[in-house]
Structure formats: C-alpha cells, structure tokens
Specification:
By secondary structure, the chain is an alpha+beta fold. The protein has 15 helices and 10 strands. The protein has 3 domains: 3-81, Orthogonal Bundle (Arc Repressor Mutant, subunit A); 91-133 and 235-339, GAF domain (Beta-Lactamase, 2-Layer Sandwich), CATH 3.30.450; 135-229, 2-Layer Sandwich (Enolase-like, domain 1), CATH 3.30.390. 46% of the residues lie in helices and 18% in strands. Strands 7-3-10-9-8 form a 5-stranded antiparallel sheet, sandwiched between helices. Strands 4-5-6 form a 3-stranded antiparallel sheet. A two-stranded antiparallel ribbon has the order 1-2. Helix 5 (91-103) packs antiparallel against helix 6 (108-123) and helix 5 (91-103) runs parallel beside helix 15 (325-339).
C-alpha cells in the first residue's frame, strides 16, 4: 500500500504541516496554531478532528497532558515516504560542496575529511563519511622510483586515478633499466585486476617471471603483496559535528547524549549501519528503532553510497528524529554527487 493511501488528503496535509512546524520549533503543535498560520483554509475544529484521527492511527502523540501533538516515528516515516521531491540547495551551499570535488584529485582522505566537516556545518547535525576500501579498486599501473641504494618508492595507480604510495626496503641498488623492465612486467600481468585479487594470487600470476628476474624485485613484491595491494585497516571514517548534537533539545539529557556518543565512537558499528542502510545507489532514511541499535532510538540517519571507480564509500547524517528530512536528504545527495566519478 502506498503512503498516500493510508490517510485522507486532509490528514495528509495536516500531518505534513505538523512535521514542518515541529521540526522548526521543537514545540508541540496545536490545532489553533495550524489554523492561524499554515493556510489550511479550514477551521480549528476540523484540524482537531484530523489530528485526533492521526493520533488514533499512530501518526501523532501527546507528549504530555493538554499539549499539542508531535509526530511519532510512524508519522515521520509517512512524511519521508510521501515526499515527492527533495529541495534544491542555495548557490552558496552548492559552491561550498564544490570545494570537495576540487580537493578529490589531490587526496581522497583530505576530500573525505573536508566533506564530513562541511556536511556537519551545513546540516548542524553529525556527519559521517566512510572512505572507499582501496582493496576493492582495480589496478591500472605501477611505477617504481629509486629513493636511495636500498629504498624504493612504489606508486600504484588504480581506476579513477586514485594513487597509493608505499616505501619499500631492498637489499641492493637496482638500476633504472631493471626497474623499468620489472614494472613493465607487473603492468602487463596485473592490469585490470582488483587489488584484493592480486594480493591473493600474485604468486601464481608472476610465477614464470620470478625465475627470469635477476634483480629479485619481483620476489620482494610477492612477499610484501599484502602491504602493497590489500588494505587491512578498519575502514577509514571521518566524523564532523559531534558538537552540534548537544544543541538539539532531544539530547540535553546527559545520559541520552552520552549513550549516543558512545555508540557513535564504535567505528565498526557506524560503518555497518551506514552500509547496511544504503546497500545500493539510493538515498536511504532510517528512523528511530529502525536502526535496531541501542543508543540510536531517538535518532534518524540519512545516508547514500558514492562510487569512485570500482571503490565505494558511504555518506551519512545522524540527528534527532525531529530533523529537516528534505534538506538533510538534499545535502547528502549533493555531497555524494561530488564524490561520484
């Protein structure tokens, strides 16, 4: 059943107005207030009837006696699912996000860190950007540069132009002509393979060439394949805006705020939440208990994956359930677009 089929047109309009008003004010919304200011063109009594029906259906609740209504988790879910479009960002916001695209060719980590800080500043919520896993990238080329008689700089280029540099120790000086010959063999044998596949199969892939290599460099590269081609570190994540969470009235309770921060400090939990929430290329919103994670019951998360070549990362915003969903969705979508290549 589609979201619009669950409510009457009037109930739909009233619920949307209440969500908008509550997001802005954090104050329970009364029927008189809606009738006076939101242009529904109906009487307070008619609005009260619609609000009572929404409460009976589970979309609104009374936070305490004789108060106005606030959206429930079901109400927020209906609101998000019934959005037809997400808004455009201002030209200033677009220009700010463009700086992430400008930084990307020089340093992926710098661009990811900058993206998290900028997203937090624009949204006033907590922003998380998970960097792509390099071992998922496809090998394009390698170059070896002699730094000294016993040190080499190995430069890996993967799809979309991302670079990885590794310094290696060797036993003796290797002539430039030998370096060029070895790198030519490597580029021929490894091109088009995922780094994770190379790390696992490089011995078999270079077996015949090792016997003909008088420099011993191929054997060194094979022995250190895990260091060169496989990123065994925990996924790198960059977080911005922890300080903004404390500004929301939902998190003025110290115990609730502390529990949220402890949850967010577990990087593996955050990576799992983001990537489980956004398994494909679509923008995704998870609200309250939909996370199924203790500590996040009062939070919502907006996330979207992004792709750089064959590697993939994820962008997310974490804030109170009372968040400006259309704007948060627009920010995440637009930042993901800056990373996509």
């Amino acid at each position: 059943m589609s979201p619009n089929a669950m409510l009457s047109p009037r109930e739909h309009d009233v619920l949307h107005q209440i969500v908008h008003r509550f997001v802005q004010s954090a104050v329970p919304v009364a029927s008189k207030s809606l009738a006076q200011h939101d242009g529904l063109a109906v009487s307070p009594a008619t609005i009260r009837n619609a609000m009572s029906a929404l409460e009976q259906k589970g979309y609104l609740e009374h936070p305490h006696t004789s108060a106005g209504r606030v959206p429930t988790q079901l109400g927020y879910r209906y609101f998000v699912d019934s959005l037809l479009t997400i808004p455009s960002l201002t030209s200033q916001e677009q220009s700010a996000l463009d700086t992430v695209s400008d930084a990307l060719p020089e340093s992926l980590d710098d661009a990811v860190q900058q993206g998290a800080r900028l997203l937090a500043k624009l949204s006033h919520t907590l922003a998380v950007v998970v960097a792509p896993k390099l071992s998922d990238a496809v090998f394009r080329s390698m170059d070896c540069v002699s730094l000294s008689s016993t040190r080499l700089l190995v430069v890996l280029t993967v799809d979309s132009g991302l670079l990885r540099t590794v310094t290696m120790e060797v036993r003796s000086d290797i002539q430039r002509s030998d370096l060029e010959r070895v790198t030519s063999v490597l580029n021929e044998r490894l091109s088009g393979r995922r780094l994770s596949h190379i790390a696992t199969n490089i011995r078999l892939m270079l077996n015949e060439d090792v016997a003909l290599d008088r420099t011993g460099l191929l054997r060194i590269l094979i022995d250190r394949a895990d260091m060169l081609f496989e990123d065994r570190r925990v996924r790198r994540i960059h977080v911005g805006g922890v300080e903004y969470l404390a500004l929301h009235p939902e998190f003025t309770d110290l115990d609730r705020y502390k529990g949220l921060i402890e949850c967010l400090e577990d990087q593996s939990t955050i990576v799992h939440l983001l990537e489980d929430q956004a398994p494909d290329a679509r923008l995704s919103v998870r609200i309250g208990t939909e996370h199924q994670t203790p500590g996040l019951e009062e939070c919502s998360m907006v996330s979207m994956p992004y792709s750089i070549g064959s590697t993939r990362g994820t962008i997310g915003l974490v804030g109170p359930k009372r968040m400006d969903y259309p704007r948060m969705m627009a920010l995440v979508h637009q930042l993901a677009a800056r990373f996509n290549q």
